Amino acid sequence: MHELHKPTERVVKILEILSSVTGGLGLAELSHLLNIPKGTLFPILRTLVELRYLEFSNSSKTYQLGVRLFTTGAKFLTESSQYKSINKALQRITKVCNETSQFGVLEEGNVLYIAKEDSDQSLRIRSSIGIQLPAYATAIGKALLSDMSMDELAHLYASGLKPLTHKTITNLEVLYKQICLVNETGFAYEVEESNESIRCIAKPLRVNGKIVAAISVAIPLFRYTEDLQEIIEQQLTIVGLELEQIIPFILG
Fold this sequence. Notes:
With about 250 residues, this protein is α+β, with helices and mostly antiparallel strands. About 45% of the residues lie in helices and about 20% in strands.
């Protein structure tokens, strides 16, 4: 076996060790676990954060895996059996509910839509694979934000919450109260906040306790019923558990 390129090996080890923990690790912890001096390690971490392969929490001073691991692997996702499994999972949701289902991740303060399964219905929503919408204005985004503290939200949306519709939440405290409820109910909700005449239900997906993605179903207001909501929440729960088993393979 050839001798490994040390800088590259260090990057890989950083990503591997962060994928194995919950809640991230600080500079001192990473330095100790990797046996790399802090002065050598910090520029690597800073570069990975700048490139968004890692995320740094100002409140906890810890590093976690970044969403760029999803986006850089776009070709892998579209060709892999795991990506096909995500699509098949969404297809099952849409077949039962006959409404559009989506899979997304957090890209800074936005939802990045990775996969989507359209229903046969004629009314369509404003989303497609690869586009981004403000997370605070969508149910799937609220699900992705639901573990954040008020300080983390304030830092993420330092420039404020800009409305997409007349019902978009623009008050940070209201947003925080809503995402706190996600951990109580297991679901996030949106009513005409990103698309007029559309409501949405979403569920966060976790790996090792950390939210890494979310799934949602969008429903036009005129088709919404409490019975349909119950069916959708059942499907999001069942399929969500399956997807949580697939996501670790995508993250590598």
